[in-house]
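User: Please fill in residues for this 1118-position structure.
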């Protein structure tokens, strides 16, 4: 608990008898209540109570001791496993407000819960937990809690786990006696301790079984590895599940009390690698469930085997002479077996990869004698013990001392540049480094060092252009420098000259040439300028026009009005300079040159032609402003036919077939150029003139002949004539004939029809205009054939109707009808006729012919006429069934392949017949009739031929109506063997009376037929002699008693009403009656409510019936 006003104070608590409470406040003000249970059996008095926190942030346990001094003895070995750390004083993290006892101490932790990364436990007092560590510790506690009946505690793994977390309290049980509980809101009581007793016992048992883990068994030991087997603890498989329990293995070397975790995982065979040879190790293990660990096993000691020594370091050079090398080396790791010999090998200076032993012994140095001076030797070293020979060390090379190098050759020049010289020289075997010196005579400083190093070349930078430099070289090794080489002189290249001055025009600019001049450059590049290079750009890029030493040049072959750009550059031994800035020069313009002669485009026409020409070769340096075309006629007259900027024109107003000469010239702002060469063109021929109107020659009503005269050909022979005609005034002319003939015969024309014709002549120039239109009419002819004809037939006659055909120019006078007889039927001006006295169901073929003043026309196509059959005879009627309000009638044999229609009529009031049915069926039910009434019926048949005759009259009568169905009877006053039955009666039907028949059915006895128990006019009856405790069903029907002696008419029975008689118990019956007496019950008077209900129901039924009758009548009339 945390107090904000001051330091926390101990709080009074109630615990179970025999328990003790220890309250501790940490540095964060959190009050911890420790409930101490009574001493367990086997624990001596005064044993300290230890609280272990598994898996805390620092992997160290916290110890709390009671304030009493009798808890100072050593812990019992059953509950505190042995450890390898010394004791320490009371916890250093207790709150200052809590008094500390001088005897407060506790054993250090025997194990810790950690991850796979190794950690070393502290041996001193437990460090205080800071806020972050305590938060992590509490979060781990909350993770390991389980909810059950509102309390939270840590449980070992079970087969059916349902772990939950809680953020309020942590309960960890160690040895089954001590509870460590932190709570910010609630205070534990003795009742909560009692409720968690069973869970604490389970935890204690699980911890004891986790601590019962066998020691690791070392299976096989090698110099750098060891194989061991870890067996799981002996768990009760019926209570706990082993799938989540793992093993943690810790390893320590001899002489070190620090264990490190080397494995954490499932129980299996483990191989430890990367061990040290001939080293003694200690192993211990513990079982682990999540963050909870069991007790550590006793350490298991094993020792790795010996092996060959480690690879030694390479030997180091201690001293050297011209003929010997003194080498020393350090001792190699023995790996459990003392080194007996060192083996030193070298390659004899051959550098071929083959080594020879030069020394073998225990001394860690050796002088190699009898070597050559100035020679490199390679060495390697190996160590040997009783196990074997180690790997050789890394190769190392050393050289013996020698003489100074001889005088080297002078350096040679590789490349010479403007500001640098690349020098190179040869490297001999005795040479190690080189010194290069240079002398610049312009400075007067003599030879100076410019390079010192092992390379065989050097680029001397920052030199002056076109300057001589002197060089000498000296080689050097460990013995000293050589003599200087002979002195050599090398010269840098000269630089390119500078840019000349800008080009300037010298003198007047002409249309085809001009002169330019320039000044030499200020910077000549250290030498004389040899040549100048002039380039000119005429729009297609710069091109060279001059190379020489002069300072001016002439630009020739220019185009007038052109713009030119000129620039200049100079060159010398050091190269070529950049070009100067360009100068732009424009030559003056002149008149344009001679134009190109015009050319004919396309074929020349009779009165016009199309000319086209190109621009002149030169425009004089100024754009062309206009072109002028001149025409010379055949009579040598000249006229200007075009003036403008276009390069083509159309010359009109020419005569067909005449030669013409054409010339063209162009102008610019300076003036007009010369005329072009002449182009001779002959105008084309013209189309012929229009012919005269054609003449018509009538040959028949269907054929005429047209002819026409030859028109003027306009310079070209007429090759064809085109004849067009118009058949109707609202149509266009269409081509009828094309050919060289001047007449044409037209056939298949319509008689007495107007036609229009026109003709035109065609030559090589084209088609001429058409002649004037010639209109004519063909002669009249006999009428056309009748096309549209309609026929209406009966059994004995046929009515023919047709449309009047075309009379072909003469009015139709009459028609001839051919019916197949020898004599034709002639009628006057009419378009219909009725043929009578024909045979029924007979086929006739009829043709019609029109006649006018010219003569008879063609017959029409034969018309097929079929007369109809005679109407069918009426069928006989019979009554299939009779009802009070309907009669079902039937006629015919039920087959109707000819689709004959029937019309049935009824005589209701002896005045006139009404149609009650029309259709192809053979039966019909006539409804809405009166009961016990006779009706007259008749019928006739109808087909395509018409209506047949009526049949004889048939008389059929309806029957009497049965009484209406009654409602289910009501049963009352039910006793053991009797009951009272009542039902609602119906009105008498005219003169006929109504009686009632009551029937009963015993369901319990399995009867299937009703038995009549009453027949009479009453509406109630008392049934006696019933079987006790049986199920019955009763129903009632009304019977019409005919007063005229006809048979009685029974109505339908009502729906059944179920009831059960009472059991034979001493129960007072509803109404006691003599068992053998059956008498009529007196009718009871209805109450006002029952009367109102009956009236309401009656009006409702009446409204429904009236509505239904109205709809039925309306639907029948529709």
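Assistant: Residues filled in for all 1118 positions:
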């Amino acid at each position: 608990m945390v107090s904000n006003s001051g330091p926390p104070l101990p709080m009074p608590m109630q615990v179970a008898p025999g328990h003790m409470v220890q309250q501790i406040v940490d540095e964060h003000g959190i009050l911890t209540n420790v409930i101490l249970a009574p001493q367990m059996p086997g624990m001596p008095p005064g044993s300290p109570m230890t609280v272990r926190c598994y898996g805390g942030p620092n992997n160290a346990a916290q110890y709390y001791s009671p304030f009493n001094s009798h808890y100072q003895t050593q812990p019992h070995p059953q509950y505190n496993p042995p450890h390898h750390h010394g004791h320490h004083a009371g916890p250093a993290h207790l709150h200052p407000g809590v008094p500390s006892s001088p005897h407060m101490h506790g054993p250090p932790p025997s194990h810790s819960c950690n991850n796979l990364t190794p950690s070393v436990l502290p041996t001193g007092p437990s460090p205080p937990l800071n806020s972050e560590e305590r938060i992590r510790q509490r979060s781990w506690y909350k993770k390991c809690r389980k909810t059950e009946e509102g309390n939270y505690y840590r449980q070992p793994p079970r087969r059916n786990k349902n772990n939950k977390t809680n953020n309020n309290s942590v309960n960890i049980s160690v040895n089954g006696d001590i509870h460590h509980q932190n709570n910010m809101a609630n205070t534990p009581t003795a009742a909560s301790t009692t409720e968690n007793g069973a869970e604490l016992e389970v935890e204690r048992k699980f911890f004891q079984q986790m601590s019962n883990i066998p020691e690791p068994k070392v299976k096989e030991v090698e110099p750098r590895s060891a194989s061991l087997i870890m067996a799981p603890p002996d768990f009760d498989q019926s209570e706990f599940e082993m799938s989540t329990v793992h093993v943690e293995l810790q390893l320590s070397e001899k002489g070190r009390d620090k264990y490190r975790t080397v494995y954490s995982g499932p129980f299996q065979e483990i191989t430890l690698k990367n061990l040290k040879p001939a080293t003694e190790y200690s192993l211990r293990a513990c079982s682990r469930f999540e963050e909870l660990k069991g007790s550590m096993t006793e350490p298991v000691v094993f020792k790795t085997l010996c092996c060959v020594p480690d690879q030694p370091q390479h030997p180091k050079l201690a001293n050297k002479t011209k003929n010997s090398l003194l080498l020393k080396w350090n001792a190699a790791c023995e790996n459990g077996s003392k080194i007996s010999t060192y083996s030193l090998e070298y390659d004899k200076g051959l550098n071929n990869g083959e080594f020879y032993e030069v020394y073998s012994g225990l001394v860690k140095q050796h002088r190699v004698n009898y070597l050559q001076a100035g020679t490199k030797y390679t060495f390697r070293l190996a160590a040997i013990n009783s196990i074997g020979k180690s790997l050789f060390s890394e190769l190392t090379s050393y050289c013996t001392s020698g003489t100074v190098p001889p005088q080297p050759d002078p350096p040679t020049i590789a490349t010479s540049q403007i500001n640098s010289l690349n020098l190179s020289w040869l490297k001999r075997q005795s040479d190690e480094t080189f010194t290069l010196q240079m002398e610049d005579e312009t400075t007067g400083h003599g030879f100076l060092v410019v390079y010192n190093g092992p390379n065989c070349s050097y680029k001397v930078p920052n030199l002056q252009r076109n300057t001589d430099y002197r060089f000498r070289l000296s080689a050097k090794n460990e013995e000293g420098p050589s003599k200087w080489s002979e002195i050599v002189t090398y010269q840098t290249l000269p630089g390119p000259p500078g840019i000349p001055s800008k080009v300037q025009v010298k003198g007047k600019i002409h249309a085809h040439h001009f002169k330019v001049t320039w000044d030499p450059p200020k910077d000549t590049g250290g030498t004389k300028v040899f040549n100048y290079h002039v380039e000119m750009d005429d729009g297609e890029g710069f091109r060279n026009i001059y190379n020489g030493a002069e300072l001016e040049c002439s630009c020739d072959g220019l185009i007038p009005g052109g713009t030119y750009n000129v620039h200049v550059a100079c060159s010398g031994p050091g190269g070529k300079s950049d070009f100067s800035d360009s100068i732009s020069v424009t030559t003056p313009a002149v008149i344009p040159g001679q134009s190109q002669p015009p050319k004919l485009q396309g074929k020349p026409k009779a009165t016009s032609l199309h000319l086209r020409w190109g621009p002149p070769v030169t425009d004089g340096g100024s754009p062309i402003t206009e072109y002028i075309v001149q025409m010379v006629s055949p009579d040598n007259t000249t006229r200007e036919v075009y003036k403008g900027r276009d390069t083509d024109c159309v010359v009109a107003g020419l005569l067909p077939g005449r030669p013409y000469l054409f010339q063209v010239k162009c102008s610019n702002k300076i003036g007009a150029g010369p005329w072009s060469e002449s182009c001779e063109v002959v105008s084309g021929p013209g189309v012929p003139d229009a012919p005269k109107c054609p003449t018509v020659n009538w040959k028949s009503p269907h054929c005429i002949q047209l002819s026409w005269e030859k028109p003027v050909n306009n310079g070209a022979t007429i090759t064809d004539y085109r004849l067009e005609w118009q058949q109707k005034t609202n149509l266009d002319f269409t081509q009828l004939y094309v050919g060289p003939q001047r007449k044409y015969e037209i056939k298949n024309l319509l008689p007495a029809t107007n036609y229009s014709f026109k003709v035109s002549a065609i030559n090589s120039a084209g088609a001429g205009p058409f002649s004037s239109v010639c209109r004519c009419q063909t002669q009249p002819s006999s009428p056309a054939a009748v096309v549209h004809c309609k026929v209406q037939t009966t059994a004995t006659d046929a009515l023919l109707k047709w449309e009047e055909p075309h009379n072909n120019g003469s009015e139709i006078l009459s028609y001839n009808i051919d019916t197949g007889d020898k004599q034709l039927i002639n009628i006057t001006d009419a378009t219909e006729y009725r043929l009578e006295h024909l045979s029924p169901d007979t086929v006739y073929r009829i043709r019609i012919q029109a006649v006018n003043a010219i003569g008879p026309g063609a017959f029409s196509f034969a018309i097929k006429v079929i007369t109809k059959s005679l109407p069918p005879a009426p069928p006989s009627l019979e009554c299939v069934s009779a009802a009070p309000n309907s009669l079902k009638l039937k006629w015919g044999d039920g087959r109707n392949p000819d689709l004959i229609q029937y019309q049935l009529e009824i005589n209701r009031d002896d005045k006139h017949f009404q149609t009650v049915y029309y259709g192809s069926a053979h039966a019909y039910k006539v409804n809405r009739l009166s009961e016990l009434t006779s009706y007259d019926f008749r019928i006739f048949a109808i087909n395509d031929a018409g209506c047949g005759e009526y049949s004889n009259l048939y008389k059929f009568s309806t029957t009497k109506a049965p009484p209406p169905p009654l409602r289910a009877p009501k049963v009352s006053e039910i006793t053991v063997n009797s009951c009272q039955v009542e039902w609602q009666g119906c009105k008498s039907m005219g003169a006929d009376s109504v009686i009632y028949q009551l029937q009963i059915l015993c369901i319990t006895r399995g009867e299937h037929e009703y038995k009549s128990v009453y027949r009479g006019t009453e509406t109630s009856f008392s049934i006696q002699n019933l079987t006790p405790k049986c199920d019955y069903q009763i129903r009632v029907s009304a019977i019409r008693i005919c007063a005229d002696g006809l048979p009685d008419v029974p109505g339908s029975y009502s729906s059944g009403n179920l009831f059960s008689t009472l059991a034979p118990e001493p129960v007072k019956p509803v109404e006691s009656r003599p068992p053998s007496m059956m008498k009529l019950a007196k009718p009871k008077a209805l109450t006002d409510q029952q009367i109102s209900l009956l009236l309401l129901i009656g009006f409702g039924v009446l409204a429904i019936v009236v509505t239904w009758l109205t709809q039925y009548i309306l639907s029948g009339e529709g």
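For context: Helices lie at 131-143, 190-195, 197-211, 1088-1117.
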